[in-house]
Specification:
The chain is mainly alpha-helical. It has one domain. It contains 17 helices and no strands. α6 crosses α17 (463-473) and α7 (175-202) packs across α11 (252-269). The radius of gyration is 22 Å and the shape is globular. Bound molecules: zinc ion (2 copies).
Length: 481
């Protein structure tokens, strides 16, 4: 038992980290051709207690603990966090830290796999290295790190000004502190699994896919910097995973650990290789086929439940896995045929234009999809939606800065309107723009019950936390401040 744990430490296979594939992989088959075992809820629960020992969570958790101990939050009344929900002083202190951690970790994966050849089973044989695509992914990822720092600033502001309660005892100072610290350590990775599925699935509904998530899917074949390459509105909802820190009385470590997980885990899961200790064929299939495998690897049972589980590359993609250039720009050049029935989620007439072998997000929606490059100017549709969605959040930011400067509260009705605008405005704007441009894409809706459930959970996990945090920031300071 102990030797098994040691050999699988941090997700290793037989004690090896590179040039070793997950146990289900048959190395005699082409990369991606092995069949992923069907995930089950029971297996997910059974693996839960060991999630910090025999999965890559070990490394991320160690990084989070080091950050929390070495660069703790300053939640004093006179600290930068208390001055404003978006404070230049807070950003000056925290943004370089987050950029350094994220860049160091992701660059390690990019360099070892794509420059130094530490792995030898790429999903796409003879992959062409495109610096322009990497630069594109870097720019949108850095925007994500900035937005995360904004999330952290808002939470630190709420705590420091008494607008949100938190556990201020450290793990070492009391039994209560230790309990909260250990609970956060163990539960954050499990919560991330659940949140990611529902947030990701909502981003695949027609309008949100067309205006927001299609940017992430510009990378049909992935590399580590494509992991956090998302539209700013996707970052907004992806980082809404911080919901438990709003709902529950938690230690600030829970938020920081959540942030480390959100920023670092996409790096290796978008590696593009099958034979290393954080390889993620499951999510790779999602980028190849788009309308399947919405969950992270660990929570694949959710895809089984909702009928979107795909366990291998289809036969025409297994012969060396031909390079499939980035979606959108290349649909006319793609020679592969439609996917077999096993790769289709429903009988919806949308299916052939959604997530098909055309490179994902095909059909008429393709015109809103752009290649992963910075050399082409954005479309008018992209720029208009970006401006509209930014306006939804900026209106709140201006009011919140005013509230912070005057240490008062916004008028109740105004606070509610601005909070709803920040959380739900980007969704409404996506629907409006998509309705005008008649673009679209993403995934089939399925039956009304399934669609309703997915939309309800998506809204609860994406828009509601953003609105709630924004609303709290417009309230008066707590009495203890
Ligand atoms: Zn992805
Ligand atoms: Zn997706």
């Amino acid at each position: 038992m102990l030797s098994t744990l040691i050999r699988g430490f941090a997700g290793a296979t037989d004690g090896r980290f590179y040039r070793v594939s997950p146990s289900f992989v048959d190395s005699a088959l082409p990369p991606g051709a092995s069949v992923i075992p069907r995930p089950t809820f029971a297996a997910w629960l059974r693996a839960g207690p060991l999630v910090l020992i025999n999965t890559p969570n070990t490394i991320w958790a160690l990084i989070a603990v080091c950050m929390f101990e070495c660069v703790p939050y300053d939640l004093s009344r006179t600290g930068p966090a208390a001055s404003a929900p978006l404070s230049a002083a807070f950003f000056a202190a925290r943004l370089p830290l987050w950029l350094g951690v994220w860049l160091g970790y992701t660059l390690w994966w990019h360099a070892t796999l794509h420059w130094f050849g530490f792995a030898e089973r790429p999903f796409v044989a003879a992959r062409e290295y495109r610096p322009g695509r990497v630069a594109h992914n870097l720019v949108w990822s850095v925007s994500g790190v900035v937005i995360w720092t904004g999330f952290e600033n808002v939470f630190a502001y709420l705590w420091a000004t008494g607008r949100l309660a938190y556990v201020d005892e450290t793990a070492w100072s009391s039994r209560r502190g230790a309990l909260h610290f250990c609970a956060a350590l163990l539960l954050v990775p499990l919560w991330r699994d659940v949140h990611f599925f529902f947030a990701h699935r909502m981003l695949h509904f027609n309008a949100l896919y067309a205006q927001v998530h299609s940017l992430h899917h510009r990378n049909t074949d992935v590399e580590p910097f494509s992991g956090l390459c998302m539209h700013p509105v996707e970052h907004l909802y992806y980082f809404a995973c911080a919901l438990p820190s709003l709902l529950l009385l938690t230690t600030p470590f829970a938020l920081l650990w959540n942030g480390v997980h959100l920023l670092l885990s996409p790096g290796a899961s978008h590696s593009g290789f099958e034979d290393h200790w954080q390889a993620d064929a499951y999510h790779y299939f999602h980028h190849r086929y788009v309308s399947c495998n919405y969950a992270g690897t660990d929570a694949g049972f959710l895809d089984v439940w909702f009928g979107s589980f795909v366990d291998t590359l289809k036969p025409t993609d297994q012969k060396g896995c031909k390079p499939r250039p980035d979606a959108k720009a290349t649909r006319a050049r793609t020679r592969a045929g439609p996917p077999p029935a096993a790769y289709r989620e429903t009988r919806s007439p949308m299916r052939m234009r959604l997530g098909s072998a055309r490179g994902g997000g095909g059909g008429r929606g393709s015109r809103c999809l752009r290649p992963a490059t910075l050399t082409r100017p954005p479309s008018l549709e992209f720029a208009a939606y970006l401006a509209l969605s930014a306006g939804c959040v900026l209106a709140w930011a201006v009011a919140a800065s005013d509230v912070a400067a005057g240490a008062h509260a916004a008028a109740p009705r105004l606070a509610a309107h601005l909070a709803v605008l920040a959380g739900f405005g980007p969704v409404a704007a996506a629907s409006a723009v998509t309705g005008i441009t008649r673009s679209g894409g993403g995934a089939p809706r399925g039956g009304p019950l399934k669609t309703g459930l997915l939309l309800a959970c998506g809204t609860l996990f994406c828009s509601v936390p953003v609105s709630w945090a924004c609303y709290l920031a417009l309230q008066p300071p707590g009495e203890d401040v």
